[in-house]
Specification:
about 190 residues
C-alpha cells in the first residue's frame, strides 16, 4: 500500500523545530526526512529546494508572530495599553519565543533574514506606537516607551539576574507599569 504524502506544513514545522535546536545550518532535507520518518524524495513534492523551505519557515514565523497575534489582539479588543500587553504576551509566549530568538540569531548572519526581521519588528513597533500614542504621548517619548517595552519583552528572557528579594514577575510587572503608566491614565496638562 502506498504511503500517505507528508503535508507541506509538517516539513515547515520540523524545519522550525530544527532551527530552534541547531540553527539554520542544521535545517537539512536529510535531517528533516529522518525526523519525520520518510525519504527525502517527498520533500521535493512541496519545495523546489532547501531555500524554498527556509523562505516558507520565515513566512510561517511571520504569520504566527504577527498576523495571528494581531488578529487575536483585534478580536479581544480593550484599552490600548491592555492590547499592547496582550500582544507582548502572545508574541513572546513559551511557544513562540524560541522560534523568535532562533530567527534573531539567524538574522545576525544573514542579511535577507535580517531584513525580514526588521519588517516584523517594525510591525510590532507600530502596534506599540498605536497603543501608546494616546494621552498626549508623542515624539521621542513615544519612541522611547516603545523601545523600552520591546527590549523588556525580549531581553528579560536573556537575563539571568536575581532581583534582591523580588520575583522576576514582580519586577516585570513594575517595568510594565513604568512604561504604561502615562498611557493608562490621562496626562495632566
Amino acid at each position: 500500500m502506498p504511503r500517505a504524502r507528508i503535508p507541506r506544513d509538517r516539513w515547515i514545522q520540523e524545519g522550525l523545530a530544527v532551527l530552534v535546536d541547531g540553527g539554520p545550518d542544521a535545517v537539512r532535507v536529510e535531517v528533516l526526512a529522518a525526523r519525520i520518518g520518510v525519504t527525502k524524495g517527498g520533500f521535493y513534492g512541496h519545495f523546489s529546494d532547501r531555500q524554498a523551505l527556509l523562505d516558507a519557515m520565515l513566512d510561517r514565523w511571520r504569520n504566527d508572530t504577527v498576523d495571528d497575534v494581531l488578529a487575536t489582539v483585534e478580536r479581544v479588543g480593550g484599552h490600548p495599553s491592555d492590547r499592547a500587553v496582550l500582544a507582548g504576551h502572545l508574541t513572546f509566549d513559551a511557544e513562540r519565543l524560541p522560534t523568535d530568538m532562533a530567527v534573531r540569531e539567524w538574522a545576525r548572519r544573514d542579511s535577507g533574514v535580517a531584513e525580514r526581521l526588521r519588517e516584523v519588528d517594525n510591525q510590532r513597533m507600530d502596534l506599540l506606537r498605536t497603543s501608546f500614542a494616546g494621552n498626549g504621548i508623542e515624539g521621542v517619548e513615544l519612541e522611547a516607551r516603545c523601545l523600552i517595552a520591546f527590549c523588556v519583552a525580549i531581553g528579560s528572557r536573556l537575563l539571568e539576574a536575581d532581583h534582591l528579594g523580588f520575583t522576576r514577575q514582580q519586577v516585570l510587572d513594575a517595568a510594565t507599569g513604568f512604561v504604561l503608566d502615562p498611557v493608562s491614565a490621562p496626562r495632566a496638562r
